What we know:
alpha/beta; Aspartate Aminotransferase, domain 1; Aspartate Aminotransferase, domain 2; four-stranded mixed beta sheet; binds pyridoxal-5'-phosphate
Amino acid sequence: MQQAPIKSWEIYRESTRYLAQGSSTSSKAPAIEDVEPALIVRGSGCRVWDADGNEYIDYRNALGPVTLGYAVPEINEAVSAQLENGIIFGHPHPLEGEVAKLLVETIPCAERVRFLKTGGEALAACAKIARHATRRNKILHCGYNGWLNSLNPGGYRPVGVASAEPTKGVPAAIAELHPSLPWGDLDPWEAAFHDDGDDIAAVMIASAYADLDKGREFLPALRKLSEAHGALMVMDEIVMGFRLAIGGAHEYFDFMPDMAVFGKGMANGMPISAYLGRADLIDSARDLGISSTFGGETLSLAAAKAVAEFYENRRVITHLWETGRALWGAVNHLFESKGVAARFQGYGVCPQLVADGDWAIQFMCACYQQGVSFYHVSYVNYSHKPSDVEDTIVRVERTLDSM
Ligand SMILES: Cc1ncc(COP(=O)(O)O)c(C=O)c1O
């Protein structure tokens, strides 16, 4: 049983006087008062510590980026070695081309690559490229595509949840160019192309966690549909890249989008994203004013290079699949055996907790008290070893018994 995270909450509450929401990432702001670890001060492997010194086996993984573990020596060493030589320069650094080459060699749709810092801005780059290439206006979204979703009617929403409410802070004429369509059902997409096919520049797709298996048929069918109507397909692989497969959903389900965007898992937490795909499209970024001062920042590139080598040498993807299958299978078995109507649903590398909303919050609360940190979508990383999985299962059983 953990101590109440009193100090963490004191510091957090004080910070909200200066820092809006107490967090620059909305979904990281703690919601469960006085129980959730409001602040994390340190991480190592698969564990994190709050400001009160409580230790948690962590399945949040920074909401996706940490695929290898916290403070992994090989990645830390690569970043430290580069730090000795400077962070960023007034000309490109060789690492920029080297990491681009590694991505071209490993990601199926990548002929050409360019770097930015976040998933949202890389997706914005793809939208601009697609509009220019097709001379059309509309982007059909599926799931959460980063801040770009704030252009949709309804704005921000979790992956796979459609909404038609008006968008705050976006002129209606712009919101109309960003319809959001559901995952897994081709009919609304066919209808959209039937009604408006001449003005659809691209479909921009983030895979849904709980129903990921629908991607097997849905994604290749959407590829054919968009191609038939002269629209581009942009895969948002921000979460699925370096997790489902290195090349994300398009590698795993075996189809070829025109462009794709990677971020989170590429550098084990260092801030970098890549938009990549057909050479003619990515090359056009130069003429479209898509550019950022920090695109070639070398600490993140050094981390990305070390991560690519780590994946190649250590069978990371296999480890994520095997560990995920073992953990969520056992947790789902516990839910069943205790008569709880909940499941971690989807693929083991990124399942979603499907349960009554209030119960899910209570469950996560009780898990924090047993030293396990889950989220609605929970992730295993390379540092979760069989003993951590066993430890987690024991704690989850204790949690369920305590509820
Ligand atoms: C599927 C998906 N796409 C895009 C993004 C946006 O990435 P970023 O937060 O780096 O802008 C996210 C972030 O959670 C995401 O989950």
